[in-house]
Write the structure tokens for this entry.
Amino acid sequence: MKNLWQREYALRAGDFDKFDRIKPSSALDLFQDAAGQHAESIGVGFGDMLSQHYLWVLTRIKFEIVSAPARYQTVVVKTWPLKPNRLNYRREYCIEDLDGNKLIIGSSEWVVIDSVERKLISAPDLYKLDAYHDEVMFEGKLGKVRDFESVVLPRVVNAGFSELDVHDHVNNTKYANYALDAINPTKNEILKTFQIDYRKEVTQGTTLNIYHLRDDNVISAKGTNNDGDIMFACKIELK
């Protein structure tokens, strides 16, 4: 079984914002596609998991832009799982240029739940790998994004059909758009690291209130439902 997966991707114009910088949602989309294809190749893809009444749930993801990729550039996306513990599954990512130079590094944390009872499952033997690629993009556990109070009025959005995935809730890449639209970064606010914690599933029609707070070179954002529950939390560090 392959413990590391890689493939070339050609970046598109739509992957970049009005300042010609790669969108966080586009970086997350590359990660998602790579992870999904690798999972399929090692027998833990969506269909394989569902046949065992299992579902993957992404709880947290972080990436750092080491060197900004360019529009239409061909890049190599790599991904690999680390050896899991009882409940936590960590997957690493690296986007490189064709010469092997790192452009974006990332890491994510996952859990497995019962697809019917929606309860956490301990399945540390889920991967059938002979060995693990053990390179780590960020040392230690990914810390939890802290809550904050904001005096800025929230941006209000409603989760729509086009943002849903096969699990019938908002796809993980779309939350980055919610956060960036609320923050509305300036040309001089250049993203260095981006982390998002997924707290609760957001379904079609859910109203989200997106708050944000600027504190020197850190921008925090969160989305709450109308009951005040935090559905996701985001932390951005600027260069």
